[in-house]
């Protein structure tokens, strides 16, 4: 009996010690460390909205966003061109109070807000990009989207190595080759619209159409025309993006992954499936590549990596996977939403539609689209 009581007492003490450890860790990561960082940042001259740890400024951001959304629903005013204030009302409010450069907090992670080109120019000329540092929150909460070894995540000499391989892939000659991969999906979308209008359909979901077309273009320019897996990867990447943004509303808050464990597990699973698909595509490309010039991003990165392999500047298969994921998230939705907004504005200003059509007729005409002619378009943004 004495041994049993002793073991029970030991278990109780171990449990208490474990709970105390968790509590101390929570206090340290949720309050002590961020408060020390906040004071240090403020001492160095950076102002910003006062955070309330462990949530930082998230509560203020949500309250402001909800208030503005409610106001927009009640208002019958015309569409505002001030996108920044509409989409990010908290940034607009903080900018009035703290200027165009300030620190705000997502959970326990500080973020530098910059809306001053001169400040960014000064930083760029005085600090090497490889030494800027990357928020650890991206590594924790966005791994399924970006991985760990893409250009968004890497630092130091790895960042330099990635830039060395990636930059030539976006040369004018390579972009011209990529442009040819974009023509067919865009033409198919416009033909589909023409057919729908001819059949008497009154409305077209332009945002969905452009987002789908942009996804097809990304699949082609990323993975090539010959790979049917491109569309499958695109669908899974979109699913991972939606899952992460719907579940993780508390980015930067300690232990936030446990708030929506099911969604986070789903995103992790999708991330693994995407990796396996991309790795299989890379393996197939390596097996079939005969050294001929490549058009799509993956082929160009593999080609550049192969050329620099002897100097220790090649990209591994894992790094190629993460760069393709980064390219998708960096160029897909941003482009689709910008085009959707442009079409909305053109619908409100028919006179600009006429002017742009006339310019395109004069510069491009009815001939095949030539990438080099885009520079001659003065009114059409390229």
Automatic annotation (TrEMBL):
<feature type="transmembrane region" description="Helical">
    <location>
        <begin position="12"/>
        <end position="33"/>
    </location>
</feature>
<dbReference type="GO" id="GO:0016705">
    <property type="term" value="F:oxidoreductase activity, acting on paired donors, with incorporation or reduction of molecular oxygen"/>
</dbReference>
<dbReference type="InterPro" id="IPR001128">
    <property type="entry name" value="Cyt_P450"/>
</dbReference>
<keyword id="KW-0560">Oxidoreductase</keyword>
<keyword id="KW-0503">Monooxygenase</keyword>
<dbReference type="InterPro" id="IPR002401">
    <property type="entry name" value="Cyt_P450_E_grp-I"/>
</dbReference>
<dbReference type="GO" id="GO:0020037">
    <property type="term" value="F:heme binding"/>
</dbReference>
<dbReference type="InterPro" id="IPR036396">
    <property type="entry name" value="Cyt_P450_sf"/>
</dbReference>
<keyword id="KW-0472">Membrane</keyword>
<keyword id="KW-0812">Transmembrane</keyword>
<comment type="similarity">
    <text>Belongs to the cytochrome P450 family.</text>
</comment>
<keyword id="KW-0349">Heme</keyword>
<keyword id="KW-0408">Iron</keyword>
<dbReference type="GO" id="GO:0016020">
    <property type="term" value="C:membrane"/>
</dbReference>
<dbReference type="InterPro" id="IPR050665">
    <property type="entry name" value="Cytochrome_P450_Monooxygen"/>
</dbReference>
<keyword id="KW-0479">Metal-binding</keyword>
<protein>
    <recommendedName>
        <fullName>Cytochrome P450</fullName>
    </recommendedName>
</protein>
<keyword id="KW-1133">Transmembrane helix</keyword>
<dbReference type="GO" id="GO:0005506">
    <property type="term" value="F:iron ion binding"/>
</dbReference>
<dbReference type="Pfam" id="PF00067">
    <property type="entry name" value="p450"/>
</dbReference>
<dbReference type="GO" id="GO:0004497">
    <property type="term" value="F:monooxygenase activity"/>
</dbReference>
